[in-house]
Task: inverse folding
């Protein structure tokens, strides 16, 4: 067994090593988290950095030139300066773009490469919307008791491989066809594609389940009139 003073020295050395490793890990810049969203005006990438940033720039080429995203009319509490705009507007084509940020000392960190594939991101984005708004998948209307609407699912159909529906049963036992995904205007329901079913006014319950493009299935949702 080591003498007590040797054990103390060993413990101190281990502690110093751990602190150095942690400090080194903290000194290594983390790549940004990027969330893509789509609207009628096009695609937007929202970037988030782990460290305080005083400015964000981006470019389609690693060597630049880089363009600033600008600043929002609000303060960043971590930097006590105007908040760097985290949004980048993108064209609807697959690409790799590069982002970098200025730290508190105005040193540039990066660039970080970010891959953008609209075909992949539309499925991911629309799935997140469907999961957050599952109570809107189906709708009974008092003014039209003979119709059951699934407009919400039809609008975000690019994320859906199969739409299952049950009438007066808690088990979705039929498959409802949806229009194909149109990347030129993915949220639009094409003319002639009516997003509803004709049902008996006596129907009191409907069930719905989505199978997403990756093959995973949602939980069954129950809708009552």
Result:
């Amino acid at each position: 067994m080591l003498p007590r003073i040797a054990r103390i020295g060993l413990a101190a050395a281990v502690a110093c090593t751990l602190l150095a490793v942690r400090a080194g890990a903290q000194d290594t810049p983390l790549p940004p988290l990027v969330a893509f969203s789509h609207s009628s005006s096009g695609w937007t990438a929202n970037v988030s950095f782990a460290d305080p940033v005083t400015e964000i720039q981006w470019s389609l080429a690693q060597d630049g030139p880089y363009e600033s995203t600008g600043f929002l009319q609000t303060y960043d509490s971590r930097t006590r300066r105007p908040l760097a705009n985290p949004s980048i507007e993108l064209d609807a084509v697959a690409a790799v773009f590069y982002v970098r940020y200025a730290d508190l000392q105005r040193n540039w960190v990066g660039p970080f490469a970010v891959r953008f594939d609209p075909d992949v991101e539309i499925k991911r984005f629309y799935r997140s919307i469907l999961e957050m708004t599952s109570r809107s998948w189906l709708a009974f209307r008092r003014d039209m008791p003979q119709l059951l609407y699934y407009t919400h699912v039809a609008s975000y159909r690019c994320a859906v491989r199969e739409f299952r529906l049950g009438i007066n049963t808690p088990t979705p036992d039929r498959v409802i066809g949806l229009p194909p995904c149109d990347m030129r205007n993915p949220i639009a329901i094409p003319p002639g594609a009516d997003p509803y079913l004709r049902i008996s006014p006596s129907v009191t319950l409907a069930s719905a389940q989505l199978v997403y493009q990756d093959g995973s299935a949602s939980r069954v949702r129950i809708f009552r009139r």
Remarks:
- The two ends are 77 Å apart (CA to CA).
- The longest strand covers residues 108-116.
- Confidence is low (pLDDT under 50) at residues 6-10, 13-25.
